[in-house]
Amino acid sequence: xxxxxxxxxxxxxxxxxxxxxxxxxxxxxxxxxxxxxxxxxxxxxxxxxxxxxxxxxxxxxxxxxxxxxxxxxxxxxxxxxxxxxxxxxxxxxxxxxxxxxxxxxxxxxxxxxxxxxxxxxxxxxxxxxxxxxxxxxxxxxxxxxxxxxxxxxxxxxxxxxxxxxxxxxxxxxxxxxxxxxxxxxxxxxxxxxxxxxxxxxxxxxxxxxxxxxxxxxxxxxxxxxxxxxxxxxxxxxxxxxxxxxxxxxxxxxxxxxxxxxxxxxxxxxxxxxxx
Length: 275
Description:
By secondary structure, the protein is an alpha/beta fold.
């Protein structure tokens, strides 16, 4: 399959390398010339350009590795170049705010969106590695899509060694991502920013290190993700605050029974997720 990847960041470039290694012919486009040069010199893409027009006509599948607000702009700009039997997808972390308009703008091509539940705190093509996708969750967001398009994304997921593949609605996607991804980033950022000491680095262990790894955040991308999904994220922050208050109240009231119940409930729920 001829695949065009627009945006060779950590996810886009990791897709490119993994799919190229599986025998697909991969075109890569980015706004930075040095990114294209690096991708070509390191075997991440087969062909590269700063201009999408060089490859759209040759492409069966277009994968957009763009920031949320840039997806619709891309579709509007290149709408006249899309063709029938062409599939366009994206790896964006939010869906509801753009998906219906994207489907219309992509015509006569077919638009179907998905979300790879994998990544790294590093950014840029130099940190790309398809190994980050191994056994990760792969979410296909279905908006009346045909089995043909869904199967194309399933094949991409298998080529990249993803694990569980789930098909969900845009609403379900954004609700769950608000909890499993965006809330966890909000907690990590808040934990780091609540630090009142100057020598904390001398005392950290695995717990702090694991909890705060994702606080090394891409401010431009994550501000777009947060604002695009703020209704669900605010609800999840409220739910988290309620649970934290329960724990605080147990401590304040010397209520050992309640504290242990909170711990046990969390332990059982976490163990259940591993099954």
